[in-house]
Specification:
single chain; alpha/beta; GIY-YIG endonuclease; Rossmann fold; 5 domains; six-stranded parallel beta sheet; binds adenosine-5'-diphosphate; binds zinc ion
């Protein structure tokens, strides 16, 4: 009989549908097989008709009906239970929504080692425990039999003792109990809006414990944004659940694991033996046949968005998957994404998520530092560290306390700025700032494409010294060293400054050793980028200073303020972690815009107020979550080819049948160079597509795929290297 099989064919990754093969036995959809393609043999997934149709609908020609005599037989069938209908539907949805082929998405969602193993090798893997390789606890397993795919049940020693109520290690706070009661009473999805240290992780563990106790096979997926956050979380979940359920109950899934470890975790989740899967964004595709709860911690984090292949948002897919599988979904954050915040508005206003509130911090972290704004308009011209801030840092040094000085430099497109009069390179046509392109010294609007040469002097006041906002950490470190040269520590030694950023931590172990220096108290001032504001627990830091956060207020990226606010909230949490010093902790913000609503909300740590002001702006500009966006990015040998390709595809869209109706709800902007216009001799351009309707945007993109493909073969696109669609892009 003829069966459809999805494989990953990179060369045609936008269009490929399932391929047809012959099989002498009926194979259930979701079965993993090995199939010949050309001279190679590839891993494939048996796909059903519904899936094939869905795939064809995105513009990919499904396999033309061809002569069965010419079809090749399936090479081998893997001895694993088929992937579920839910899993296949998730893959189909992700492929359609993010405008990729189902084959690419499906195969990328499987552990890489599965592709390389023959059926015999896999068989051996299933029946033999892995050698204990590293100290990584995620691969240690109590027994090999929990790996056996032929067993649909789990080891008897792993079966829970059958307690109905979870035993918490701590007495829950009233806020925690309230959140849990709502979680039990309602269907969700939930947004757990809880301050840092309010005990969100405790709530996650409690809800997990509840589900595991209620049913013998329930599975829970817990997602975190970054690999380096997994060990901490894994330790807490292991400590909580392994004593009762055995060590095999928790597995991790992230790209920092070896291929063998990843395969092992995946198989454990797929068989149902692992009841708790902890992972980064890729884990959203984990095969979990009894999935009942998905937790997305730090749901606002941009790391949930993939930036290669299918550019999916794991947070958004988690919500979709929850609905699909009838599993509960809980997003958690102290500074939620504005999208999730908006979705969790009151039901009467159209809200779809249930907002759970835990505003209070527990225990020694209860007090947040006092926020002080330094009005830079009243400080000496062009000073980087204002005199009052320098004085405060010096006082900290005298008391053997530490200061953290950070720059939120990364990720923001540079905007030109006049330090004398406050002029900024605003676009005359848009509510956006034009971006400084060093390569040809131009100012370009990434929205409308308007371009102008960089003015010789400030157009407002004539000051010739206009410069991109922002300053590097290296310069800052040097500058601080000069300013503090005359200061000595109480022990008579000179002041020690350490810089932590992507450059200083490039070598393996560098970050750890730098952090160890901070913890041991050798360091007086820590200088760095946002990477130091996250997650680390610095006990002796009593001063946190954001030196120049203004660039994010006026970034061409409309999400920059949202990120800045989250970052400042997080950074504030670094100060005064040691209870004895908490009282004197301060958060300093140097700004030319001290009355900006963002900073006003920050002084009260008032996320809702900040969100309200931002959402009002977004609504006026019909930006997400009020409008929907997609970006097509093109890479070519020349900027002309990249832009021609995009503009040509845009013009050609006007020639689609029913173009007036199709385009009525779509705005296609002209192609513009990306803010980092050239990387390694490759020119990059992008085109923004907007719509007020998600459906209209989806339909347009599906139709437009074919046009884009045709546009690529136009002679003037010579030198075009690749292009890709990014749906719901995070960086514009
Ligand atoms: P979050 O995830 O919101 O940052 P955590 O769950 O990590 O918060 O809790 C912060 C700290 O407070 C942890 O050390 C945790 O063990 C502790 N904690 C959480 N809930 C309670 C509670 N009900 N009673 C006492 N300590 C708690
Ligand atoms: Zn513009
Ligand atoms: Zn000026």
């Amino acid at each position: 009989m003829v069966i459809s099989v999805l494989v990953d064919m990179p060369a045609h990754s936008h269009r490929a549908g399932p391929l047809s093969y012959l099989s002498d036995q009926a194979l259930a959809a979701g079965t993993l097989v090995r199939v010949p393609l050309g001279t190679r043999e590839l891993l494939g997934v048996v796909w059903d008709d519904a899936a094939a149709r869905a795939n064809a609908a995105i513009g990919g020609p499904s396999e033309p009906a061809c002569d069965p005599a010419k079809l090749r037989p399936v090479a081998a069938v893997m001895d694993l239970p088929p992937l579920s209908l839910n899993w296949r539907t998730l893959i189909d949805f992700a492929a359609r929504y993010y405008q990729r082929s189902a084959g690419e998405v499906a195969l990328a969602a499987l552990p890489p080692q599965l592709r390389d193993l023959s059926v015999t090798q896999l068989g051996r893997r299933l029946n033999k425990p892995l050698p204990k390789k590293s100290k990584d606890s995620s691969i240690s397993s109590s027994s090999s039999s929990s790996m056996s795919m032929s067993m649909s049940h789990i080891d008897s020693q792993d079966i829970p003792a059958g307690t109905d109520e979870p035993v918490d290690e701590v007495a829950l706070s009233a806020e925690q109990s309230g959140a849990i009661a709502q979680f039990k009473a309602q269907k969700g999805p939930f947004l757990l809006f809880g301050a840092t240290g309010s005990g969100k992780t405790e709530v996650f563990m409690h809800c997990t414990a509840d589900l595991l106790a209620q049913s013998v096979d329930a599975q829970v997926l817990v997602m975190v944004p970054e690999i380096n956050l997994t060990p901490q979380l894994e330790d807490r979940f292991r400590a909580r659940f392994c004593p009762q359920y055995g060590t095999a109950v928790v597995v991790s899934m992230h790209s920092g694991m070896t291929p063998a470890q990843r395969l092992k975790s995946w198989l454990a989740a797929h068989s149902g033996a692992a009841r708790i899967v902890l992972g980064t964004r890729m884990a959203v595709f984990a095969s979990m046949p009894h999935l009942q709860l998905i937790i997305v911690d730090e749901e606002h984090d941009p790391s949930y968005k993939s930036h290669e292949g299918a550019r999916y948002s794991a947070r958004d897919l988690a919500v979709y998957r929850g609905r699909l599988e009838d599993a509960r979904v809980m997003l958690g954050s102290a500074t939620p994404s504005l999208e999730s915040w908006h979705h969790s508005r009151p039901v009467a206003d159209g809200g779809r998520y249930v907002r759970l509130l835990m505003p209070s911090r527990i225990g020694p972290h209860a007090v947040l530092p006092r926020v002080l704004r330094v009005d830079m308009n009243h400080q000496p011209r062009r000073c980087v560290i204002s005199p009052p801030l320098l004085d405060a840092i010096t006082q900290r040094i005298a008391r053997s306390e530490q200061s953290l000085v950070f720059l939120n430099r990364r990720g923001y497109a540079p905007v030109l700025h006049c330090a004398d009069c406050g002029w900024k390179s605003e676009c005359t046509c848009c509510s956006a700032y034009r971006v400084f392109h060093k390569i040809d010294r131009s100012l370009r609007c990434h929205h409308c494409g308007a371009t102008a040469p960089v003015p010789r002097a400030c157009p407002a006041c004539g000051n010739p010294d206009i410069a991109p906002m922002g300053r590097g950490t290296e310069q800052l470190e040097e500058h601080l060293a000069e300013l503090l040269a005359a200061v000595t520590r109480p022990d008579g030694l000179p002041v020690r400054i350490v810089r932590i950023d992507a450059d200083s931590t490039r070598h393996k172990g560098a970050l750890e050793s730098q952090l160890a220096q901070v913890h041991s108290g050798q360091v007086d001032v820590l200088v760095g980028t946002q990477m130091i504001a996250k997650g680390h627990d610095f006990r002796r830091i009593t001063l946190v200073a954001a030196v120049n956060p203004d660039n994010a207020l006026f970034s061409s990226d409309f999400r920059a303020p949202e990120r800045l606010f989250g970052l400042l909230m997080q950074a504030a949490g670094r100060a005064g972690r040691d209870a004895s010093m908490a009282g004197s902790s301060e958060m300093w913000v140097q700004t030319f815009y001290p009355t900006h609503p963002l900073f006003a909300a920050l002084t009260r740590y008032d996320y809702p107020a900040f969100a309200q002001s931002q959402l009002a702006e977004r609504q006026m500009a019909t930006m997400p979550p009020f409008g929907f966006q997609a970006l097509v990015r093109a890479e070519a040998r020349t900027q002309e080819a990249a832009q021609f390709f995009l503009n040509h595809a845009s013009t050609a869209a006007q020639a689609l049948p029913d173009a007036p109706q199709r385009l009525a709800r779509i705005t296609l902007y002209p192609a513009v160079p990306m803010s980092i216009q050239r990387i390694n001799y490759v020119e990059r351009a992008q085109m923004l597509v907007e719509s007020l309707s998600r459906t209209a945007l989806q339909q347009f993109l599906a139709d437009w795929q074919t046009v884009l493909h045709q546009s690529g073969s136009h002679p003037q696109c010579k030198g075009l290297i690749r292009w890709a669609i990014d749906v719901d892009p995070l960086l514009i």
